[in-house]
Amino acid sequence: MKLAGLSRQEISADLGVSEEKLERILNLHQRSLEDAWILRNYLLTKVEEAGEKPVPFTALKGDPADHWFLDADTIHHGKMTPGDN
């Protein structure tokens, strides 16, 4: 988030989620696993747009399509789940 120069409020607004939900996603406590991957992709894009080099993620590695339990299409479209859970 620092590399992208974005606040939690800005990210929440961009993704259309509450700050409470964003915190759950950041802490990997969100019910939808896809939401974390959507946030990851969003941050990678924003860091690159800011002209910075992204730092590798520790928990979300590789391509989501390689993980059978994820809906890669949902992640690709970047649409967060509705509500705060």
Short description:
The chain has 85 residues and is mainly alpha-helical. The protein contains 4 helices and no strands.
Distance between the termini: 22 Å
What fraction, in percent, of the residue positions are helical? 40-55%
How many extended strands? 0
Shape: globular
Mean pLDDT: 92
Please report the number of helical segments. Answer: 4
Low-confidence segments: none
Approximate strand percentage: under 5%
How many whole angstroms does the radius of gyration measure? 12 Å
Q: Main beta sheet: strand number and arrangement?
A: none
Q: Briefly note the structural class of the backbone.
A: mainly alpha
Number of domains: 1
One letter per element, helices H and strands E, the order comes to HHHH
InterPro entries: DUF2316
Protein name: DUF2316 family protein
Organism: Schleiferilactobacillus perolens DSM 12744
Protein architecture, described:
The protein is 46% helix and 0% strand. The protein has 85 residues and is an all-alpha fold. It has one domain (8-77). The longest helix is centred in the middle third of the chain and has 17 residues, at 33-49. The model has no long low-confidence stretch (mean pLDDT 92). This is DUF2316 family protein. Pfam families: DUF2316.
